[in-house]
Amino acid sequence: MHRFIKARLFASALLAPVGASAADDSHTRAAVEGTILPLMSRHDIPGLAVALTVDGRAYAFNFGVTAKQDGTPVTDSTLFEIGSVTKTMTATLAAYAQSTGKLSLDDHPGKYLPALKGTAVDKATVLHLATYTAGGLPLQFPDAVEGDAATWAYFRDWKPTARPGSLRSYSNPSLGLLGAVVAKALDQDFATALETRLFPAFGMAHSHVRVPERAMQDYAWGHRDGKQVRMQPGPLAEPTYGVRTTASDLLRFVQMNIDPSSLEPAMRRAVEATQVGHFRSGPLVQGLGWEQYPYPVSREWLLGGNSAEMLLDPQPAYRLPDATQAGPRLFNKTGSTGGFGAYVAFVPSKRVGIVMLANRNYPIPARVEAACAILQALAPTSD
User: Fold this and answer.
1) At what angle do helices 172-186 and 86-99 cross, to 10 degrees?
2) In this structure, which topology does domain 2-89+191-378 adopt according to CATH?
3) Cα–Cα distance for residue pair 319/107, rounded to 1 Å
4) Is 55 left (phi over 0), alpha (psi -120 to 50) or beta?
5) Where exactly are the structural domains of the chain?
6) Residues noted as catalytic
7) Chain segment 321-377, per-residue pLDDT in tens
8) Kindly report the CA angle at 81 between 77 and 85, in degrees rounded to 5?
9) How many CA atoms lie within 13 A of 43 on its CB side?
10) pTM for this one?
């Protein structure tokens, strides 16, 4: 694997690089390679791309191959499936629709999707859908739900297990329904809305919901059970796990979340809205898309917020009386598909962030541990 390693620096087009010595660059490279190479070996990860932003300077490090069968090296152009990191973009698009007066987080889905008006799911608000607090929507759609007709029948017939706002139940149907609401509010299909409104605003020229033929040569293969795989879309896949992007493009999204001042006003307000915490649940505070923690945060607390229990089991949710949190915070989001694993974390007050994209779905705790090790080396805290 080492012969496929490629690591190089790139100057961000979004934030002007600050001065850095060769020693600084060497330290960054050592911190990344010293963490990522053992990680890849331990979890048999064929390829992995890391992008970092540190005090305005951006770095890209590429490791391994896009597919075991042909040995093509991972490059800055390699497209990865980012799974549920897509949800942070869906939430940003929802916040953009709100900032442009197209919807309100206090609206109910039936306002935009008349077929759901008066149903149990219509008692939830757009905010509840965006924060997994609609009342117990499950992690996945049942296997029997295939196609649009079955999807909307599922929502019409769904029965809650709790009142809206009392339970956080991490859910693809919840965010998928949010995406459908946003698309109606913006009067576009969801993929077009994301590709024409959000990606250009953030300078994400190599990000796709629908991968065009010209970009297929850059699309990595995922790996699972000895096979090369790619995502097989299910109900409302586009707003929940449908984005394919490069590590460098995703870093641009992170950079604008760290400092949204150069975005046009409506999109800047949208980014700011996604960083407002609305519900506390277990170790984390749930905002729109992003999960957040007071910073510095302990390793144990961050692992707890990204644990299987928080992913799989409904947890009590407590509405925060003041939706604006003060003080430094760490924001993060994991994402997985059958053959890919992603992790993103950033701390605006430290001007540091990391993107890790792999073509294997390896354990989430290992992603969190690796990102923490790299960030601690580059932006140490006293904890």
Assistant:
1) 40
2) Beta-lactamase (3.40.710)
3) 17
4) left
5) 2-89+191-378
6) 84
7) 865 567 899 999 999 999 999 999 999 999 999 999 999 999 999 999 999 999 999
8) 110
9) 25
10) 0.94
